[in-house]
Amino acid sequence: MSTAVEVEDVTFAYGETVAVEDVSLAVEEGSFLGLIGPNGSGKTTLLHLMIGLKQPDSGSVRLFGEPAAEFDEGERIGYVSQRATDRSNSMPVSVREAVLMGRFPHVGHRRPGPEDQQLVDDALERVDIADLAERPIGKLSGGQRQRTFIARALAAEADLLALDEPTVGVDADSRTDFYNLLDELNDQGITIILIEHDVDILTEHVDSIACLNRKLYHHGDTVSFLESDAIAEAYGTTGKIVSHDHP
Amino acid sequence: MSLDTAESTVDGQGSGRARRTVELAGLGLTGILAALMLGFSLVDWLRFVAGPTGSIAAGIFDQYVAVGGVLDTLLGTRVFESPGTIRIVATGVLIGIVGPLVGTFLVHRQMALIGETLAHTAFAGVAVGVVVAGLTGMAGTRDQLIFVAFIVSAIAALGLQWLTEYTDSYGDVPIAIVLTGSFAVGTLLISMFRDRLAIGIDIEGFLFGQIAIVTVEGTRMVAVLTVAVVALVILNYKQFLFITFDEQAARVARLNVRGYNSLLIVMTAVVVVGAMQILGVILVAGLLVIPAAAASQLGKSFRETLYLSVLFGQVSVLTGLFIALVASLPAGGSIIIVAILFYIAAVLVSDRSVGQLSIH
């Protein structure tokens, strides 16, 4: 099995503040990795480093075997950020338009053709929102909106999904449906990297967990994660610092 | 949710189709009008060329003037028979297309005040033009000044782009600094050099727009920029849409986000300077922002929003110009008031809240 993302000794700082320190981990193709850690632990930064949105200060990141900075097959990565969800509130974009964006890296300046439209239709069907295609995305529920972004990644024929707390503000039922959908997509061979703060959800769906608080505290399958003290250590560190500051 | 289901009924689909037909018809009319006005600008230029081309152009030019005369007879006015008025209308029709076209992207990038800022840098450009013209012994005509304004404004646009990237936001602060700073430079330069150089500069004309002196060259510049901007938006529509909607995802998809941002902001600078001739420095941003904001209240898709914003912009410009010409009122003010009336109507008709559209 080949490696989708390979992170080696990566360190990244915002000015003086080190967000990610000496992290090494590999994400095999077809695996489902969960990233967990306290607020401000560098999860989002690590995810951004992995998909080439940020360049590490030291260390290296390889995407599908290529250095992430030089990787140019952007359509292979489907990215769902929390910020995308914010903008979609106010901007009048239909669901179909949003999903069609997944085809944009493929078509370049060309007009999307019938085969692109077909892929969009298939993606809408796949995540079960075909009936909402002409609806402005701002009028969807949180769960439907996240499905739209997944459909965009499917239309892009992405083989790596990078999801940053995708179910914030989504009701419990839609959340379960959403994670079941991710499971199905993972079963079909799509690699998924997911940031999620809910340990129960994470352990139920992913097959390996990276526990992070600036440094990597644990990386392994869910069983080894649950047996380890990683979570207590990772979250505890922050606690200790706080107790030092306020004796 | 009950509202959502109502939309998917057969009835809803029927009215959606009718709405689309009306929009496309309006857009078609706008296109025809724009083509006619581009044609006018072309013959206005070619009629002075020697030989058969010139005489054919002069013939067509006379036809335009004759149509203006017919319009006057129908309306009982005496304004459209003048080539000057046709130039004003031509400039208005064209900026009524490109203003809202770039404005719709800006509004949704939460860059609504970029237009205002670039208009102020254009004012500094005019002042620089006065100095350059004075020192090099050029005549310092309005056209030369506007040409310098194009260049200064485009450079300022790239500077602003760099500043926002450096400070990592299109925040209010860089905007306020560039906006007031360039205006300060403009006023200082003009005061310092006005008496020393033999150039009369009509500051009020630049600030508030002066349709009475829309020149042949000014109209031609707007014609050229319209063709360029419309072509660039059509060519890069998908890329502009993607970076506007989800800049990070566009970056992950390895789009050249910085390049497209620069292109958009330079296009804005050029459009602002073109539209400034009619609307003036102070009001020009309204033509970019208000039709786009009105359209965003109603559009179900981005494409529809873009179409509606061009339609609102076009009708606002035509109505505003008509009021201004017939009642001898300032054009900029008339156009903006009409645009705001459209916006209010759109807010009243729409079920979307205004607060969703942040303008800063």
> Can you tell me the number of structural domains of chain B?
1
Mean pLDDT of chain B, rounded to whole units? 87
CATH class call of chain A: Alpha Beta
Order of helices and strands of chain B: HHHHHHHHHHHHH
Q: What is the fold named in CATH at topology level of chain A? A: Rossmann fold
Can you identify the CATH superfamily of chain A? P-loop containing nucleotide triphosphate hydrolases
Number of helices of chain B: 13
Q: How many beta-strand segments of chain B?
A: 0
Total count of helical runs of at least 4 residues of chain A: 10
State the shape of chain B: globular
The CATH architecture name of chain B reads Orthogonal Bundle
Strand line-up of the largest beta sheet of chain A: 6-7-8-3-9-10
Radius of gyration of chain A: 18 Å
CATH topology label of chain B: ABC transporter involved in vitamin B12 uptake, BtuC
Shape of chain A: globular
Structural write-up:
The complex is a heterodimer of chains A (about 250) and B (about 350). Chain A is about 40% helix and about 25% strand. Chain A has helices at about 45-50, 80-90, 95-100, 105, 115-125, 140-155, 170-185, 200-205, 220-225, 230-245; strands at about 5-15, 15-30, 30-35, 60-65, 65, 75-80, 160-165, 190-195, 210-215, 215-220. In chain A, the strands form 2 sheets. Chain A has a 6-stranded mixed sheet, with helices on both faces. A 4-stranded antiparallel sheet of chain A has the order 2-1-4-5, covered by helices on one side. In chain A, helix 5 crosses helix 6. Chain B has one domain (about 1-45, about 80-355): ABC transporter involved in vitamin B12 uptake, BtuC. Chain B has helices at about 1-5, 10-45, 50-75, 85-110, 115-135, 140-165, 170-195, 205-210, 215-245, 245-250, 255-300, 300-325, 330-350. In chain B, helix 4 (about 85-110) runs parallel beside helix 9, helix 5 (about 115-135) packs parallel to helix 7 (about 170-195) and helix 12 (about 300-325) packs across helix 13 (about 330-350). Chain B is globular and about 55 Å long. The interface of A and B includes residues 77, 79, 131 and 135 of A.
